[in-house]
Amino acid sequence: MAAPVGQSAKRGSLSVAVPPPLQSTEASLIPVKSVQITVLEGHDLKGVKGETPVTYVRVEYNGTTLGDSSKTDVSSSGTVIYNFTTSFDYNPDGPNSLDDIAHKPIFLTVIEVLPKEKRQKDEKTVALGQAVVDLLPLLQGKCSFETTVPLHAAPGSPMENLRPDAKCALEVAVSVQESLLSAAQLSGGNLLRVTLEAAYSVPDAFIPTGPQQNYMVSLQVPTAGEKEYPLLFKNGVLKLGGEKEPLPRPKKWPISNILAPGAQSIPDSFIVGGSYEDEDGELNKTEDREFRIQAESIKKRIVWDVERRCYLEPAAVLNLQKHIAESRYWPVEITRVPVVTSTKGKSSKADKGDDDGQISFHGVAYVNVVPLLYPGVKRIRGAFRVVAYQVCEVFEKTKCLLSVFRDLGHQINLTKLGATSAGINSPHSRAVASRNQKEDKVREKDGQRKVGMSNALKSQVSETALEMEGSGCQNLEGQQYTEAGTFLVMEIELDKALVPKRLPEELAARCVKEMIPPRPQFPCRTAGAKKAVKDYHSQITSIAGAILDEYHELFGKQVTDGAMIDHQTLEEQKCQLNYELNRSGKYFAFKEQLKHSVVKIVREKYLKTTAFNNLEQLQAFQSELYVYLVDQMHIALNQDTAAPTLPTFASCEQLRLFAHEAEVTGDYELASLYYQQRVARDRQNIQYWLDYGAFCLLIEEDIKAQECFREALSLNPSHLYSLLLCGIAAVIMEHYEEAEIFFEDSSCLEPSSILAWTLLGLFYDIQDNDIRVEMAFHEANKLLQARLTKEKTIIEAAEGGGKCYTFLLTLVSEMKKLSTGVLESSFVTTTVPVSRLSHPSTTIFMETIRFLMEVNALQFVHRALAHELLCLQGGPSCDYYLVLAQTHMLKKNFPKAEECLQEAIQIDYLNPNVWAQKGHLCYLSGNLSEAKECYERTISFVTDAAEMHFVYLRLGSIYLEEKEYDKAKQIYLLACKKSASCLTWLGVGIACYRLKEMGEAEEALSEANALNNNNAEVWAYLALVCMKVSAQPARYYKLNKEDLLQEIHEVQQIVGFGNPSF
């Protein structure tokens, strides 16, 4: 593309005629459109001779000079007006096709005419600079555009030494009479950009000395027909290690022989890099990071930094989608070819195109392009390992038999092509070349003959390649890529996503508003900072009471003696109390009890829901929060607490507990009644509807569950868990189109939710849409890794900070966990967790299974467990077997559940959840003695199991069955203290009755009756107690009238109940 500076042009000429290529009759029917280029003026020009040189501008495109402007003087200010217009013809089937316009710019060379010296016959010229005009706007539907392009200095030009504020530039206008693209092409076509950055960690055999080598990379792009055409990147620069490539750095045109070095860069197009974890390639894991850093900074590399654009017709776009769906990998070949220089008048093998034997170090990288079929994805970038090119392996992975370098070397003429272009042989240029043959008169017959020959050649090439590989011919040079760990860094980008992603507004308009009946907006219920502080006060008071109880248990005798306690004794008692609290695990339990209220203060009062940017911000926030919490603690401890007024009915939290108790005991009618009571009390509470719907899923009332979920969604169409549960219900009822929109809407509303992306992937798995499954799981895994990395960073910072409120760091980590949408806290009530795993999950599937078990979506649970089993390394985890056992128990498959629990015990013998679950299994199987051992082991652990409430209930019932009434009373009292219910107080009442403690029995049974006055067993024991204590009030009040007492006894004997012995 360098300007022939030794040639002169006619002054005032507007254009230089270019002989048109030969065209067939069909091509002549296609209208030829003219693209006009007008060079308006130049700025800040400086010549070799003086400040006002005589210059003209030369316009070139696609290797052809379009014309020279008239010679014009530059003004003293450096401005020159050219007003020069020229043009070239766009032809869809010609050399100036849409593909050419996509990747070939217009070159504008400013040339100075030097004054003639004495005895000088010819005029001398020198190139000052060169500018490039990108024609991409013409492919975006524009008919005209104006631009100011910088003028890059030519080597040795005086423009290299301009003042810093000078901006050498040319103003250019480009226009066409009508758009180059039709409406169908604008809507259905696409622009593909392939950027080859570099090959890192190349073999040691690549050395800069010795014969000159041309390092090349190629890949084949699908076209509108069955054939593919090759993209060829040539002239890679071999560099020794020592420093990393700068970022950002400009991308280069796929054109050779550009005059000005600065003109090689594509305007406003840069390689910006990014973190390894965000890449789509193969070397993006944490364990690959050190190798990537070393390879990109120390080891040898080959650098191209070239961007190649390809315009894709609508038919080619469809073919590209089909090709990616059928074969997820694109083979990207790499090789090197010695540079051959031929002398004039002689013919060499390179001239004839016979360069197959010169190809060496033939390797291939398999680029996974499936992410381009993800909804909304337009770009993939990453590092891809290079391995030896083996025909069988390439065909197995890519279904591609032809190699660009080996099989198509004759057609693309590798050594010669490098002298003119670093681009490709486009299908259009090959079509034009075929017209320049002498057999035009018999084109149809010749064409048929060529098709047959092409198929035969392809078959012959394939068979020969397979035979060579099968006979033991190995690519020993290519193996060096594997040994050196070579990888290619490249980027593939489309202007428009192959699979459009629906916007949240579109999803809501199409589905949610249609399926959910409209209703008036309910007033928002605020639970702000005031309530958060109040909850914190109540937790402080509760913990203080528990500590006082512990103190009285340890030192109560000293207090009751009335002796004065000196300061030293108090300090000793304080140290002993601290020791007992830490030894027994109660200190940790108090901290866990306080955690949730502190999180609410952070979120509601400080409005802090995002991660901290640096450690300084975190420490400052911790200090401020610590001071505030201590002040509020003093306020809570010093205030006068009035006796709380007992409610006349159970609270909504208690109703939730009672409903879950009924679920576990199998009384579904009573559980349904409790859920309905909650909904009736507050129909605007989304969580009440979701809990009721989850219960309906348990009893397989799918229609009622769907109604509940949609009722919750109508209260808030943007509620994540309502959307997800609506999607789950739609899948259960086989309404897959509705389910897809619900799940897609949830991932759009909460793109940072691991749960939303995982459920979307599970749904696509049901649909057998493997590409969408991979997309959703990849996004969920990326979010999980980012969260784990943040948590690890905070933990490391806390460990480095010593006693820097590590307990607050845990709260911050919990906040981030909630903000990412892992699990909504309202699903797991503070009173009794429904189904929570003991250890934090480390896979997206275990995160999701927690939620699915709570909402009784067993269909999704089994599918998630299957994926969990596939992704685990080193075998299934304890949590996996625990959840699997729970699913078997729900189906009453006790032998399978026992097998799973045995596996879980072998993995984690000290897991209280496993022993609790085994106790439940033995209890339901009727093996009470073994169930008792499991429950006692569970309560002996320092850490409680997830569902201690039912451990207490069932262990207490076993004690009653075995007539161990003292133990039963203590267990039931412990249950009442943590989560009181009718069943817990009933257990206390029965134990006290059997122990002849009638007063306590009456009080306990009265409390049970207050919580549920429809329990027949409570009434029965109340009757027994009343009959036994009916005469005791008279004795208590010292009734001295013996005749009245006698009359009472007589009546008791007459009616047939009571205790006449009183």
Describe the structure in your own words:
- The protein has 1062 residues and is an alpha+beta fold.
- Among the domains are: 25-181, Sandwich (Immunoglobulin-like), CATH 2.60.40; 186-432 and 479-494, no CATH class; 529-638, no CATH class; 1030-1062.
- Helices cover 49% and strands 15% of the residues.
- It has 39 helices and 20 strands.
- The strands form 4 sheets. The protein has an 8-stranded antiparallel beta barrel. Strands 2, 3, 4, 6, 7 and 9 form a 6-stranded antiparallel sheet that branches.
- Helix 20 packs antiparallel against helix 21, helix 27 runs antiparallel to helix 28 (858-871) and helix 31 runs antiparallel to helix 32 (928-940).
- The radius of gyration is 41 Å and the shape is elongated.
- 36% of the residues are buried.
Write a brief structural summary.
By secondary structure, the protein is of the alpha+beta class.
Keywords:
single chain; 1062 residues; alpha+beta; Immunoglobulin-like; 8-stranded antiparallel beta barrel; 6-stranded antiparallel beta sheet; 20 strands; elongated; disordered N terminus; C2_dom; CFAP70; TPR repeat; Cilia and flagella associated protein 70
